[in-house]
Each structure stands twice: as C-alpha cells, then as structure tokens.
Queue: 2 jobs
Job 1
Amino acid sequence: MKIENQFTIEHAPAMVWAGLSDIYTVAECLPGASVADELPNNRYRGRFAVKLGPLAATFEGELQIEHDLNNQSATVSGKGTDTRSSSRAQASLHYQLEPTDAGHTKVLITTDLTLAGALAQFGKAAVIQQVANRITVEFVAAFEQRLLQHSAETHTPTVDAPSHEFVSTDQPALNAGHLLLSVCRDLMRRWWTKLFHRP
C-alpha cells in the first residue's frame, strides 16, 4: 500500500536536513524505533517494536539510506521480521525537503509498505493512513524539540559525519492499539455528525 504524508518543521532546511540525515536522531524521535548496529555502505541494523491489542511484535532487520544532497531528498528502504508472530514488513520511504516562504521546511513523504503475517489483518489502507498521520504528529513534536535543544551547538550533524551523541536506546513499543482506538473514535464521531447533520 502507498502512504503519503507531509509536515512542516519550523526550522531552516539546512538544519532539518542535518537532523533527518542522522539515523540516531530519527530513531530517538520515533516511538518504538532503535538502531542496533551501523553497517557499511549507509546500512543499519535496527528494530521497531509495536503493540496492537494482545499482539506485540518486534521487527528486526536492516535498512539502507540513499541521500541526494543536491535535491535534499533521501530514500530509506528496509525489511524486518518478527519471529514470535511470523509477521513481516517491507517498506520503501522517500522524503523530499522544500523551503517555505516563512523560512521553514516542508517535508513530503511517500511510503510503499507491505505487511504479511498476523499484523496484515490490520493493514487496511484507510486505517494505516490514519495511524501514520498520528505517528507523524508525535515524531514532529519530538524532532522539533531535538532541534531546539541542539540549535545553539556549533557542530551540526551532517550526512558524512552523523552525531552519535543521539544514539537511541530501546524505545517503548509503539502502542498502535491506542492509536487505532483513537482513530476509530474519530471515524465514529465524523459518521455520527454526518448522520445527524450536526456541526
């Protein structure tokens, strides 16, 4: 399935590019994600923990990042497996940075996601899109806070020299069940409002 999203960071493109190019910073801001090992050729071994009701899964695998410095874009591709639930995930994510008139940065994201196994039963596109939107909100809040904390530092992380001071420890599992419950409440509220023509 294809998932599209976008958000705006209230910082200049150069700073946003530096932060997004540091996999450790990204993992620190993304609930459930952590980086285990750094491999050659911009490859990393990591894990992503998610809890969906009674089902808890920890995907372990590899990802590779290809940066396009001239266009300030990147492609992140990877796949992982959870041995307990026999669930598998494969994804390719492309993001593009665009400056705004206010001097901030718009980030456009397109993700191709494939789920297999036990988690695939929750893989309806509309629900996954809503969950992705909410994850994005959480990530943006944490990412902007990181940029604020380090904006005064003289050394800014770059693609060639990522800052390992942000190395992520294992994060609590992303509670997708809580997100899905919130999504369902929003859907029911909109359906109820439409049914009874309430504002």
Job 2
Amino acid sequence: MHAVVVEELCRSFGSQQALRDVSFSVRRGERFAVLGANGAGKSTLLRIIAGLLRQDSGRVQVAGVDVASEPLEAKRRTGMVAHDPWLYPELTAEENLRFYAGVYGVPMSRVKELLEEVGLARYAHMQVSAFSKGMKQRLSIARALLHEPQVLLLDEPSSGLDASGRAWLRAKLEEFSRRGTAMLIATHHPSEAMSCARGILLEAGRVAASGSPEALLSVAAGEGE
C-alpha cells in the first residue's frame, strides 16, 4: 500500500490556479522531493495533503485514508512541519509539547523523549519567544512527531538551521525512513532534494517532470532538454 496517493489534484484561489492535475504516489519509508520555485504550488500541495486546505477536485489518500472524506483520521496519520512553526511563544518548549500531546491523546512521557531527541532537553523550561529560529524549527519537528505519524510533510525543513542543525536533520530523516515513515519534502535546496529517492518538479502548479533528484534538478536548471 502506498503511504500517499495524489490523483488529478486541482486547487484555485480566485482566478489563480495553484495546482493543476497533480498526480503522484509515495511508498512507505520513502523520501519524496517536491521541487519548484517560490509560488510553484509546493506549500499548497502539502497543506491539502495535511487536510488544512480542501482541493477543488481530485483525490488524496494518506495511509489508505481519504483526506476529504475522513479528515480527522487522515490527520492522525500525518505530521507537518510548515513555515509557521505552530508554537505558542508565551509557553515553554515543554508546555507546547504537552499541549499538543493532550490534543493527540499522546502519553506525557513522549514529551521528554522528543525534547531529548531533537536536542532541546536543556531548554525545556525556556519560553519559546526566546528561541532562535533554528530552535523553533527543532521544536516544530518534535511537535510533528508527537503522535508518530505514518506520513511526515516537511515544507523547507532546513530553514533556520545552521550547519550542525542541517546535519542533525539529515540523520533524523534517514532514521525516520528506516522506521517506515514516508516523507514529502518541499524544497528548492539541492542538498535536501538529493536526500530523496524520487520526486516531482512543479512549475506554475503543474508537474513539469518526475523522477530522480538529479534529473529534476537538471530540468529546473534548464539543462534537461
């Protein structure tokens, strides 16, 4: 069974068509790149898969569940790291994760485990408002992993991370793949794309190319003809 199936997905905002007949599938444990320039439709695509936007037409399944007809069950199977970290700045790191653990019905012991896992244990009682962008990104990743999703959606995941943070993220993504977590990584960074097995290139909301990261980067650079 595929972890993610997207079929003929379309979405418009007024007269602007953000996605046009987008189709692809992602296997369990696979890292799948979604490449494209700013405005190509990457974030819109991930938000629809996450159940945060409704498509105009087409179908999306996450771990065998239709996102449109069973949105709550689909969200239980999905975690997302977006541009907005979805954190409460007035709360501490631990309080943020405890809040989301309550929402998902996750044991509170999971909070400390994840703070350790993302390297924030010693900052557990610091308010998030005092965090650097990289620290917020690590906490956002911990939030997305709280309920152990089968599918992880990552929108520019290395944003705000320094060199050591990017190395940590690469190691974590490899670990998640071994666990069987499927990942969609929306990016325009070649290094992030090259960590994936396959992917698609979006241009003006359409799939302009699909295949290996090398091939997609070549097309994006205008060298694929």
